[in-house]
Specification:
mainly alpha; Ribonuclease iii, N-terminal Endonuclease Domain, Chain A; Double Stranded RNA Binding Domain; 3-stranded antiparallel β-sheet; 10 helices; 3 strands; about 55% helix; globular
Length: about 230
């Protein structure tokens, strides 16, 4: 895949996001994969200049906006029904698919070697880039700019959820049970963030196959990990 260069890449991304950036440096950072960021030097931390910090923020902004939208769209539902909806909508497979459908892959700045290896098509890279773009939108245009984009891109996904999806942890457990396999094993890989706004990264494994998920609660991260593994299992 040949990606546009420099200003053309930023202009293409602005078209996708529907927002003209007052601070283009934010968008440039959101589109910069770790492989294309400046190498750590003179005490700079690894990953400096990449989209990792904006992805960290955008992940939380996305969760808030989707939760807000679900509460508005399904006013009669409680947490037990809204939770599975949210977990699916912010899961890596869904976010990556939306990023690819929007054409964001071509706007990403990655190192030449990584580009030849097809890194722009990797689900993790696509999902992180879309979340970073949402973070950049939030910093540049506020919550309203991020909300406008999210509601445009996620509209079909929201409307397609006629009924709450089955709890992903239950679905994964049923998948394993039906094949005579041990129960899924969940493990917290990392917990960071301040006490009032933690961030969990969780892995789940069944019969040697694994998935990962991240969220602001352990339960949410476990559900996201279950969704990821179910998607890998087909």
């Amino acid at each position: 895949m040949t990606a546009p260069a420099g200003a053309d890449r930023l202009e293409a991304a602005e078209t996708i996001l529907g927002h003209r950036f007052l601070r283009p440096a934010l968008l440039r950072e959101a589109l910069t994969h770790r492989s294309a960021a400046h190498r750590a030097a003179s005490g700079r931390p690894a990953g400096a200049g990449s989209n990792e910090r904006l992805e960290f923020v955008g992940d939380r902004v996305l969760g808030l906006l989707i939760a807000e939208w679900l509460a508005e769209r399904f006013p009669e539902e409680q947490e037990g029904e809204l939770g599975p909806r949210l977990a699916r909508l912010v899961s890596q497979p869904v976010v990556a698919a939306l990023a690819e459908a929007a054409g964001l892959a071509r706007a990403l700045d990655v190192a030449p070697g990584e580009a030849r290896a097809g890194v722009r098509r990797r689900a993790t890279v696509l999902a992180d880039a879309l979340e970073a773009a949402i973070g950049a939108l939030y910093f540049d245009g506020g919550l309203e700019a991020a909300r406008d984009f999210v509601r445009r891109i996620w509209g079909a996904e929201i409307e397609g959820q006629l009924a709450p999806p089955k709890n992903p942890k239950s679905a994964l457990q049923e998948w394993a049970h039906g094949r005579g396999l041990p129960l899924p094993r969940y493990e917290v890989v990392r917990r960071d963030g301040p006490p009032h706004a933690p961030h969990f990264l969780v892995s789940v494994e069944v019969d040697g196959r694994s998935g990962t998920g991240a969220a602001g609660t352990k339960r949410g991260a476990e559900e996201a990990a279950a969704i990821d593994l179910l998607a890998r299992l087909g």
